[in-house]
Amino acid sequence: MEAKKPATTVPEDHRIAEQVTRLLAENQVLRERICRICRSPLQADGLSERMMLLVELANEEAVDLDARAAEKDKAAEQRRHALQEDLERHLSARKAEVAQLVGELTDAATAESERLVREAAGEAARILGRARREATALGELRGRVAGLLATADRLLAQCEQPEATPEDG
After folding, report:
1. CA distance 47 to 58
2. Is residue 68 part of a domain?
3. CA distance 35 to 27
4. 45 close to 36: Cβ distance less than 8 angstroms
5. pTM of the full predicted structure?
6. Residue 14 in contact with residue 21, Cβ under 8 Å?
7. Contact present, 37 and 49 (Cβ < 8 Å)
8. Which of 24, 82, 117, 162 has a CA-to-CA distance to 145 between 20 and 30 Å?
């Protein structure tokens, strides 16, 4: 069994027939134009029409090239802008990392310097305490030496004096 095609209406058939007739006429005009342009040798009217067609095609191509170039420029600008934003985000993140690292290093250096100052102060206090004890001990030793020297001087003085004999008396 064959499927039946739906029947078209008369006004629709008439419209299609008019459209076909119009397209055939346009096609004939274009064929004649092509024939005139491609004829050898070229006639003056064909040459000017051919030149106009070439100029028209060149203009269309130029417009197309300009449009594509503008699209590429726009795309390149968008890409450059995106890259710039990406760079700025990375730089900002890197600055934050560096600032954090500098802060951590500063804190560590401050803590280390405070520890060294405390150690130095403790060492200085120990040295000063030992020096004071040694100075006190030296002072005491000096006092004893001075006492011994005084005793030695008295003894020497006594030795140098003639001894009194019982006969002297």
Report:
1. 16
2. yes
3. 12
4. yes
5. 0.40
6. no
7. yes
8. 162
Is there a domain that residue 7 lies in? Answer: no
165, part of any domain: no
Kindly report the CA angle at 88 between 83 and 94, in degrees rounded to 5? 125
pLDDT tens by residue, the chain, 169 residues: 455 655 667 788 888 889 999 999 999 988 887 776 666 555 556 567 777 888 888 888 888 888 888 898 888 899 889 989 999 999 999 999 999 999 999 999 999 999 999 999 999 999 999 999 999 999 999 999 999 999 999 999 888 887 665 565 5
CB 37 within 8 A of CB 53: yes
| Domain membership of residue 59 as a residue range | 17-156
Is 3 within a domain? no
